[in-house]
Amino acid sequence: MRIAITGASGKTGWRVVDEALLRGNQVVPILRPDSQVPQALADGKVEIKRLDLANQAALVAALSGCDALVIATGARPSLDLAGPLKVDALGIRAQISACKKAGVERVVLVSSLCSGRFFHPLNLFGLILLWKRLGERWLAASGLQWTIVRPGGLKEAEEQLELQGIRFTDADQQESSSIPRRLVAKVCLDAIELPAAVGRILEITSATDVVPQSLGDWLAVNPA
Questions:
Q1: How does DSSP classify residue 210?
Q2: What is the spatial distance between Cα 113 and Cα 132, in angstroms, rounded to a whole number?
Q3: Which of 17, 77, 85, 172 is deepest in the core (most CB within 10 A)?
Q4: pTM of the predicted model as reported, rounded to 2 decimal places
Q5: d(Cα 155, Cα 43) in Å, to the nearest integer?
Q6: Cβ distance 171 to 150 under 8 Å?
Q7: DSSP letter (8 states) at residue 160
Q8: Residue 149's beta-bridge partner residues?
Q9: Beta carbons within 8 Å of 188's beta carbon, 6+ residues apart
Q10: CA 187, CA 149: separation in Å to the nearest integer?
């Protein structure tokens, strides 16, 4: 498959790129013009596309010929309290529009646990969870083949991931706990490959006391 990843310079995004390449996919990493290229993408193995997501023509051109898009963009903490609105809502809407114009039907969005919740400390940063939920709703209403992945707290750890079992649930079933970013990347790519993941909101956390299971196995016993 040919998979585009927006937010590819982020800590989750570059891992999605890496995992997609390990699975033999063609990858189109899309970065903001001012983003630093992570070391993992600096080896020249893939051609990086730099563009402003508000530039619809450039985004459509970058997405053309792709089979799927993983949206790993996310507002970063800053003094700009409108950042979450711009990135997690309006930015998602712009990517949905570009997918339709470019003929990309399959989209996986990396969102967040507790998306849509008002009384939450994360909302001190520009009401981020409310804007994330609006972006989710726009995607769900888009007519595209979508999956929303809501991870818990994101961890950088890369060691002994095989000891971590992923806890999968439907929407609004989990409130806390965490998960390594690498496992989030794997779930995003699993979702692209599994037709049963279309139209689902998947909440994911992990722990060593969770029995390991694949997304496919969980979907088989938890149909929509």
A1: S
A2: 10
A3: 17
A4: 0.96
A5: 24
A6: yes
A7: T
A8: 110, 202
A9: 16, 70, 72, 108, 110, 149
A10: 8
List of residues 6+ apart from 81 with CB closer than 8 A = 125, 126
Cβ atoms of residues 169 and 203 within 8 Å: yes
Distance between CA atoms of residues 21 and 4, nearest Å: 11
CB atoms within 10 A of CB 217: 11
Give residue-wise pLDDT tens across range 160-187: 999 999 999 999 999 989 999 999 999 9
Walk me through the domains of the chain, giving residue ranges and CATH numbers.
2-221 (3.40.50.720)
In whole angstroms, give the CA distance from residue 109 to residue 122: 19
For the record, the structure tokens of 208 come out as 């060593």
DSSP summary character for residue 141: T
- Angle at which helix 181-193 crosses helix 13-22, to 10 degrees, equals 50
Give the contacts of 72 (CB within 8 A, at least 6 positions apart): 5, 6, 7, 8, 10, 12, 13, 16, 110, 188
Per 3-state DSSP, what percentage of the chain is helix, strand, and coil (rounded to 5)? 40, 20, 40
7 conformational bin, left if phi > 0, alpha if psi -120 to 50, beta if neither: left
Q: 168 pairs with which residues across the strands?
A: 204
Q: Please name every residue paired with 151 in a beta bridge, in sequence order, or none if there are none.
A: 204
The 10s digit of each residue's pLDDT in 75-122 is 977 778 899 999 999 999 999 999 999 999 999 999 999 999 999 998
With CA atoms as reference, report the closest residue to 168 among 185, 186, 149.
149
| Rounded Cα–Cα distance for residues 87 and 80 (Å) | 11
